[in-house]
Amino acid sequence: MRLATWNINSIRARADRAVAFLERTGTDVLALQETKCKDEQFPREVFEAAGYEVATLGFSQWNGVAIISRVGIEDVETSFAGQPGFGVEPVSEARALGATCGGVKVWSLYVPNGREIDDPHYTYKLEWLEALRTQAASWIAPGTGDPDAQIALVGDWNIAPLDEDVWDIEVFAGRTHVTPAERAAFTAFAESGYSEVSRVHLPGRTFTYWDYQQLRFPRNEGMRIDFTYASPALAARVTDVTVERNERKGKAPSDHVPVVLDLAD
């Protein structure tokens, strides 16, 4: 099975491009983030015409996640237990969508950005990650979950865990995405039994995001912030990981590119 994750940065602007990617790469399951549309606005017809089923979660022109699969979509969940909301009167945002596809529980995740270190959104980001980690740990823990469960936590994590994951760590001094607290929140998933398989199979300086501004892509001034944490049973099936860098080229690209996992049968 081939599983991919992609922050598409508006599915209505890039639906044809997403379908072309699916057909070109033979991807079976695609987790999307930042779809930026309500459920009823999602262009599901173009994917269904290509032989895929679609599950979506979108409330407005912000955030939004989806899962597109040609190996089935079952047990759809539109949040994880304990998922915090944001705001004075906390509102649950469209940031987590889970579904079982071909025997794998896939979670498409759009982790909060954090904005600035002194912004309430930064605290929200850390709380959101800890709530997800707590639940993810329970899903594979003996007694509360299934140690043999096949789970993929995929998406835009909005964290660069290592200095090499940004083009110049000095540029990010005092900013979000690279703070010790964010990095610790990311590493905590490994401490809970999951493996970040994209780095295992694709080590080194590899970026998945380039801002549209200041010629970041031509200069290769990017960030590595799109990852897959896999449960032990699923991590054992991963045979290869690729970053589809060419998807940042051409007409109207997203500022992120797909990360693709190959799974043994």
List keywords for this structure.
265 residues, alpha+beta, Deoxyribonuclease I, Chain A, six-stranded mixed beta sheet, 23% strand
Polypeptide structure, described:
This protein has 265 residues and is α+β, with helices and mostly antiparallel strands. The chain has a single domain (2-263), classed as Endonuclease/exonuclease/phosphatase (Deoxyribonuclease I, Chain A, 4-Layer Sandwich), CATH 3.60.10. Helices cover 24% and strands 23% of the residues. It has a 6-stranded mixed beta sheet with strand order 3-4-2-1-12-11. Strand 7 (104-110), helix 3 and strand 8 form a beta-alpha-beta unit. Helix 3 (120-140) packs parallel to helix 4. It is globular, with a radius of gyration of 17 Å. 42% of the residues are buried. The mean pLDDT is 97.
Task: Tell me briefly what this model is.
The chain is α+β, with helices and mostly antiparallel strands and about 260 residues long.
CATH superfamily: Endonuclease/exonuclease/phosphatase
N/C terminus separation: 7 Å
Counted up, domains total 1
What structural class should be given to the helix and strand makeup? alpha+beta
- What fraction strand? 15-25%
The string of secondary-structure elements, in order, is EHEHEEEEEHEHEHEHEE
CATH topology: Deoxyribonuclease I, Chain A
Mean pLDDT: 97
Number of helical elements: 6
CA-based gyration radius: 17 Å
